[in-house]
Amino acid sequence: MKILVVDDEQDVRALFEQRFRREIRSGRFSFSFAYSGEEALDYLHGHASEVVLILSDINMPGMSGLELLRQIKREYAAPPPAPPQVMMLTAYGDEQSRQQALQLGANDFLTKPVDFAALKDKLLLLADHEN
Questions:
Q1: Which of these, 128, 110, 131, lies nearest to 119 by C-alpha position?
Q2: pTM, whole model, 2 decimals?
Q3: Distances (CA, A) of 39 to 5, 56, 82, 86
């Protein structure tokens, strides 16, 4: 399952590669990383059919995660390709951001610091559903 992680914090890559080491090695998950909303859209334009899930931070300089979500839902509204699922991540677990993300079509909403055990369970469930 191909997952695009969008976060302006550079250390997020090492964190995901460490926490999902076994799933990456087995080929169960494949991660790509974008460090801005704009970079994520550029990546999607070349790889949209591959990406099954996008994990995006909400608060980023430039294009916010909510604006990225809005763009993804607009551009990938109808197959082909099927729109990727989008999980939003935020350090601010506030209800307003959560409601806005869900209204824009987010499939899930997680708060930082990320509970990697819970995230892994969600991703494995999604991967099993894909197959």
A1: 110
A2: 0.93
A3: 11, 12, 20, 16
What residue type is 28 in one-letter code? R
| CA–CA gap between residue 41 and residue 76 (Å, rounded) | 11
Q: Which of 14, 45, 8 is nearest to 31 (CA)?
A: 14
> CA–CA separation, 131 vs 70, rounded Å?
27
Q: Which of 113, 124, 1 is nearest to 53 (CA)?
A: 1
Residue 72's nearest CA partner among 50, 45, 91 is 45
Total Cβ atoms within 10 A of residue 16: 21
pLDDT level of residue 78 (50, 70, 90 thresholds): low
Q: What is the pLDDT of residues 110-121, one digit of tens each?
A: 888 889 999 999
Residue 32, pLDDT > 90, answer yes
Q: How far apart are alpha carbons 90 and 51 in whole angstroms? A: 21
Q: What is the pLDDT of residue 38?
A: 97
Give the mean model confidence (pLDDT) for residues 34-62. 93
